[in-house]
C-alpha cells in the first residue's frame, strides 16, 4: 500500500494547516498533509485509538480537528466532551459559525420565532435578530433564489427546507443558479450557500414527506452533497459546509434528530469530501450513509456473531464520492455491499455501483450488490413502510450471499 | 433659425422648454453640463403613488452620451445579427435593438453600486454597465477572452465589479435572485438598490409574486422592472395576461408605467424609483418598449405581428431618432456631426468584431475550471491515490 500524495497535491503547503489565522483555517485534507495518510491507514486496520487520537488531535485551541473517524473510544479518550442530541449538535455548529462570521444568516420557514420545526434553529432568532434568522413565507422557489442571489454578493445564507421534499419546488434555482453560476460567469461569482433539511423515510409520514432528494440532486454539476448521521459529524459537516465556498446540500434525516452522543468541546470540522470508517473489517465492505448506517450496524452485530467481519464505511460525501477510502477498502475485502435509503432507480447506490465497477473492477471477487428502497411511493401503513426500506435482516442475508 | 425650421415639421414629441442661449448661436458637439429641462412626451401613470414630474433635468453632455451609447448598442446588436447568420454565433441569441433607451436611461439614474440583474436579453445591459464591446463579441463567439471566458454564451454575461449580476436563461428565475441581492444590500447597509428586470412573459411567473411578497414584507430596496415589449416570444400580452397592467400587479406595491422608448423618461422613473426603494421598500416599473427583432434569432418576428407594426414603431417611436431630434433641435450637434459619430461607432464595433474573431477558443482544460472553488481539496482520485482522475476546481 503506497499511498503517495500526487505531485499536485503535495505542492499545497502545510502552512495552511498550521496557520493560526482563523479565517484561513482549512481542514487538513489529503492534499496538504503528506504524512497524514500513513497514520490514518495504519490506525484503522488495527483499530488502535491511540494513533487516531495523537496523530490528528491538535492542542492549540484555535486549530481545528478534522477527524473523520468517530469511534466511541476516540471521544472518551479525549478531554471531557459534552453529550447532546443531533439537532442540538447542528444548532451548536450553526451558532458557532454565525458567531464567527457576520455574513452567515439563516432563512427558512419557521426558523426564527418558532425555533425551527425540528428545533435546529432554536434560540438563534433571539440571539442574532430578525435580519440574520429570517422567517420566510411558504415559497421555496423564491427564498431559495433569494438566498442564492444574496450569496452572489458575498453573504453566506443557510437555507432550510422544512422537509427536503419541499425543495423540489426550488429545483430550478438549485440546479440552474446555485450549481451553475460559478461556471457560467467564468468564476466571477461564488455561491457559498448551504441548503439543508431533513429528508428520508420517517414514521408513517406519507409519500410526499418521505422523499430522498439526494438521487435527484446528484447530477447537478457544481454542488456538493453531504449526509450527516451522528451528532459528531452533523456538527462538523455543518461547520464545514458553511465555511465552504461551494454550494453544499446537507442531508439530514428525520429519524436521526434525537440521537445522543458525546462530542468534543474543542472546535472541529469534518472534511466534506471524506468518508467515515465506522467499523474496520476484512471480509466485506458495506457502504452506507445516513439512517441506513444504523441498520447496517445492527446487522453487523448479527454478522459478527455468525463469524463474519464486515467493514462498514459511512460514505458521508454523496457528491463527490470518496473513492480513495472506498477504493482502499475494496482492495482489502474484494466484496462490496451498498445499503442505502434511496430508490433503486437512479439512486446514490446506482451511481456508486457504477463508480466502483468502473474504477475497482479488478479488485472485485463478486458483483457489487446494492440494497435500496423499493421503487414505490412510501406508503402510510406501518408494515408496508417497513418493507419499503432495507431492514437489517435483508442486510445479513445479502452479506451471507456475497461471502459464500 | 434652425430651430424654427425644425419646429414646423416636428411633431408633438419635442417641446424644448428652456434653453440658455439665443437661437442664432450654434452649439457644436458640446460637452456642456449646464442643465436643460426637457418634458417627456408621454405622462407617467402611477399606481399607489404620486407620479414624478414630467420635466426631466438633463444636460447636453448627457443627451449626447445617450445618443452615442444607444448608437453603439444598436450597432452591436446588428453586428450580432450578421455574425449569427454567418454561423459565428450559435445557439440562442436574443437581441435588444429597439429597447436601448432602457439600458441607457437606467444607467443615467444610478451608480455602479446599484445592482442590475436581467434575463437573457442582456447584451446591451452589459455594455451599459461598462462592459467592453470586444468582451461581448468574444463571449458570443465562444472565445477565451469573453466576459465569461466563453463558458456562458449570449445568455450569461456578468460583470461583478459593476454590480451586473447577469444574464439568466430561465424566464423569471432572476427575480428572486434580484430580491436576494437587494436583501444583501440591506443586510450590509449599502444604501444601494437592485433593479431586477424581466419581461412581460416573465410577469406571469409565480416566483415573481413570491419574491415581491418577501421584498415588501422585509422592506427590501428592490425595484422590479417589467420590460413590456408586448410579446412573450410569440404570444401577445393580451393573450397571456388577464391584467396586462403590469405596474398594477404588485397590488400593495406602488408602481409606475413609463414610456420605455424615451431615455429621459426612463431616467426620471428610475431616479424616482430608487429614492422610493431606499426609503419604502419595493417598487414596480413597467417600461413600455418594443423590440424590432424577433424573440431570438430563430424567430423571424413576423408570424405574430405585421411588418407594418414594426416599421410603424420604428418611424414614430425609435429611441435613437428621438434623441437625434432632441440634439438637433437644441443645437447641441449638427446632422453631420451626428453622422460622423455614427460612422465612428460603426468602425468601433467593426474593430471589436474583428478583434474578437481573432481571439483564441478556450483550451480543453477549461472544461473543468470554475466548477468548484478550490476548497478543502476538491479532487477525485483513483484507487491508490496515484492517479489524479480530475481536479474539480
UniProtKB/TrEMBL annotation, chain A:
It is found in: Plastid, Chloroplast. Gene3D superfamilies: 3.40.50.920, 3.40.50.970. The keyword Magnesium does not apply. CDD domains: TPP_PYR_E1-PDHc-beta_like (cd07036). InterPro entries: THDP-binding (IPR029061), Transketo_C/PFOR_II (IPR009014), Transketolase-like_Pyr-bd (IPR005475), Transketolase_C (IPR033248). GO terms for molecular function: metal ion binding; pyruvate dehydrogenase (acetyl-transferring) activity. Residues 84-259 form the Transketolase-like pyrimidine-binding domain. It catalyses: N(6)-[(R)-lipoyl]-L-lysyl-[protein] + pyruvate + H(+) = N(6)-[(R)-S(8)-acetyldihydrolipoyl]-L-lysyl-[protein] + CO2. This is pyruvate dehydrogenase (acetyl-transferring). It comes from Cardamine amara subsp. amara. The lineage of its organism: Eukaryota, Viridiplantae, Streptophyta, Embryophyta, Tracheophyta.
UniProtKB/TrEMBL annotation, chain B:
The pyruvate dehydrogenase complex catalyzes the overall conversion of pyruvate to acetyl-CoA and CO(2). It contains multiple copies of three enzymatic components: pyruvate dehydrogenase (E1), dihydrolipoamide acetyltransferase (E2) and lipoamide dehydrogenase (E3). It is an enzyme of class 1 (oxidoreductase). It catalyses: N(6)-[(R)-lipoyl]-L-lysyl-[protein] + pyruvate + H(+) = N(6)-[(R)-S(8)-acetyldihydrolipoyl]-L-lysyl-[protein] + CO2. InterPro entries: DH_E1, PDH_E1_Alpha_Subunit, Pyrv_DH_E1_asu_subgrp-y, THDP-binding. Residues 68-364 form the Dehydrogenase E1 component domain. It comes from the Eukaryota. Keywords: Oxidoreductase, Pyruvate, Thiamine pyrophosphate. Its EC number is 1.2.4.1. Tetramer of 2 alpha and 2 beta subunits. Its cofactor is thiamine diphosphate. SUPFAM superfamilies: Thiamin diphosphate-binding fold (THDP-binding) (SSF52518). GO terms for molecular function: pyruvate dehydrogenase (acetyl-transferring) activity. It comes from Cardamine amara subsp. amara. This is Pyruvate dehydrogenase E1 component subunit alpha. Pfam families: E1_dh.
Amino acid at each position: 500500500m503506497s499511498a503517495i500524495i500526487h505531485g499536485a497535491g503535495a505542492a499545497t503547503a502545510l502552512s495552511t494547516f498550521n496557520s493560526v489565522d482563523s479565517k484561513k483555517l482549512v481542514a487538513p485534507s489529503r492534499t496538504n498533509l503528506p504524512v497524514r495518510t500513513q497514520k490514518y491507514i495504519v490506525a484503522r486496520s488495527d483499530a488502535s485509538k491511540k494513533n487516531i487520537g495523537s496523530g490528528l488531535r491538535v492542542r492549540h485551541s484555535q486549530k481545528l480537528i478534522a477527524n473523520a473517524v468517530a469511534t466511541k473510544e476516540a471521544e472518551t479518550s479525549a478531554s471531557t466532551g459534552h453529550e447532546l442530541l443531533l439537532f442540538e449538535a447542528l444548532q451548536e455548529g450553526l451558532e458557532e459559525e454565525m458567531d464567527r462570521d457576520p455574513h452567515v444568516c439563516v432563512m427558512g420557514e419557521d426558523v426564527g420565532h418558532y425555533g425551527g420545526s425540528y428545533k435546529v434553529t432554536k434560540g438563534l432568532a433571539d440571539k442574532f435578530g430578525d435580519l440574520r434568522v429570517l422567517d420566510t413565507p411558504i415559497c421555496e422557489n423564491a427564498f431559495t433564489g433569494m438566498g442564492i442571489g444574496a450569496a452572489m454578493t458575498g453573504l453566506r445564507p443557510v437555507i432550510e427546507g422544512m422537509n427536503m421534499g419541499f425543495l423540489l419546488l426550488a429545483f430550478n434555482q438549485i440546479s440552474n443558479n446555485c450549481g451553475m453560476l460559478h461556471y457560467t460567469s467564468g468564476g466571477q461569482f461564488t455561491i457559498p450557500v448551504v441548503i439543508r433539511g431533513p429528508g428520508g423515510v420517517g414514521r408513517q409520514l406519507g409519500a410526499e414527506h418521505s422523499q430522498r432528494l439526494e438521487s435527484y440532486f446528484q447530477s447537478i454539476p457544481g454542488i456538493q452533497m453531504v449526509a450527516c448521521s451522528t451528532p459528531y459529524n452533523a456538527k462538523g459537516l455543518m461547520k464545514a459546509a458553511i465555511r465552504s465556498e461551494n454550494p453544499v446540500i446537507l442531508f439530514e434525516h428525520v429519524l436521526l434528530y434525537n440521537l445522543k452522543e458525546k462530542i468534543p468541546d474543542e472546535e472541529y470540522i469534518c472534511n466534506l469530501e471524506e468518508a467515515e470508517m465506522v467499523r474496520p473489517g476484512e471480509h466485506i465492505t458495506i457502504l452506507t450513509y445516513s439512517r441506513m448506517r444504523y441498520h447496517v450496524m445492527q446487522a453487523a452485530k448479527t454478522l459478527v456473531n455468525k463469524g463474519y467481519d464486515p467493514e462498514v464505511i459511512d460514505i458521508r460525501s454523496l457528491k463527490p464520492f470518496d473513492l480513495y477510502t472506498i477504493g482502499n477498502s475494496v482492495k482489502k475485502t474484494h466484496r462490496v455491499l451498498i445499503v442505502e435509503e434511496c430508490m433503486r432507480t437512479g439512486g446514490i447506490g446506482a451511481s456508486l455501483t457504477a463508480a466502483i465497477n468502473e474504477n475497482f473492477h479488478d479488485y472485485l471477487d463478486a458483483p457489487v450488490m446494492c440494497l435500496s428502497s423499493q421503487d414505490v411511493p412510501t406508503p402510510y401503513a406501518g408494515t408496508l413502510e417497513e418493507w419499503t426500506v432495507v431492514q437489517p435482516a435483508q442486510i445479513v442475508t445479502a452479506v451471507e450471499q456475497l461471502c459464500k | 433659425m434652425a430651430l424654427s425650421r425644425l419646429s414646423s415639421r416636428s411633431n408633438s414629441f419635442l417641446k424644448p422648454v428652456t434653453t440658455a442661449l439665443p437661437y442664432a448661436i450654434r452649439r457644436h458637439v458640446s460637452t456642456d453640463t449646464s442643465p436643460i429641462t426637457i418634458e417627456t412626451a408621454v405622462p407617467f401613470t402611477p399606481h399607489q403613488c404620486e407620479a414624478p414630474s414630467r420635466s426631466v433635468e438633463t444636460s447636453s453632455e448627457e443627451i449626447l452620451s445617450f445618443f452615442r451609447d444607444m448608437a453603439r448598442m444598436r450597432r452591436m446588436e446588428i453586428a450580432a445579427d450578421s455574425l449569427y447568420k454567418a454561423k459565428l454565433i450559435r445557439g440562442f441569441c436574443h437581441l435588444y435593438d429597439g429597447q436601448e433607451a432602457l439600458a441607457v436611461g437606467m444607467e443615467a439614474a444610478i451608480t455602479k453600486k446599484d445592482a442590475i440583474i436581467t434575463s437573457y436579453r442582456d447584451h446591451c445591459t452589459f455594455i451599459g454597465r461598462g462592459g467592453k464591446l470586444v468582451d461581448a463579441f468574444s463571449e458570443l463567439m465562444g472565445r477565451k477572452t469573453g466576459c465569461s471566458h466563453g463558458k456562458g454564451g449570449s445568455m450569461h454575461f456578468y460583470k461583478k465589479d459593476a454590480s451586473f449580476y447577469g444574464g439568466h436563461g430561465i424566464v423569471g428565475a432572476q427575480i428572486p435572485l434580484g430580491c436576494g441581492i437587494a436583501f444583501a444590500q440591506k443586510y450590509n447597509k449599502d444604501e444601494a438598490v437592485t433593479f431586477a428586470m424581466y419581461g412581460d412573459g416573465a410577469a406571469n411567473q409565480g416566483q415573481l409574486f413570491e419574491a415581491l411578497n418577501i421584498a415588501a414584507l422585509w422592506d427590501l430596496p428592490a425595484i422590479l422592472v417589467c420590460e413590456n415589449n408586448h410579446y412573450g416570444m410569440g404570444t401577445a400580452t393580451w393573450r397571456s395576461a388577464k391584467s396586462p397592467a403590469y405596474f398594477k400587479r404588485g397590488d400593495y406595491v406602488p408602481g409606475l408605467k413609463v414610456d420605455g422608448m424615451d431615455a429621459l423618461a426612463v431616467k426620471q422613473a428610475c431616479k424616482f424609483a430608487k429614492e422610493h426603494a431606499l426609503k419604502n421598500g419595493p417598487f414596480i416599473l413597467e417600461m413600455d418598449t418594443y423590440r424590432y427583432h424577433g424573440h431570438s434569432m430563430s424567430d423571424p418576428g413576423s408570424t405574430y405581428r405585421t411588418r407594418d407594426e414594426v416599421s410603424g414603431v420604428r418611424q414614430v417611436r425609435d429611441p435613437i431618432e428621438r434623441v437625434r431630434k432632441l440634439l438637433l433641435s437644441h443645437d447641441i450637434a449638427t446632422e453631420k456631426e451626428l453622422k460622423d459619430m455614427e460612422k465612428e461607432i460603426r468602425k468601433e464595433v467593426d474593430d471589436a468584431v474583428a478583434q474578437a474573431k481573432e481571439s483564441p477558443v478556450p483550451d480543453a482544460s477549461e472544461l473543468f475550471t470554475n466548477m468548484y472553488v478550490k476548497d478543502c481539496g476538491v479532487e477525485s482520485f483513483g484507487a491508490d491515490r496515484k492517479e489524479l482522475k480530475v481536479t474539480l476546481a
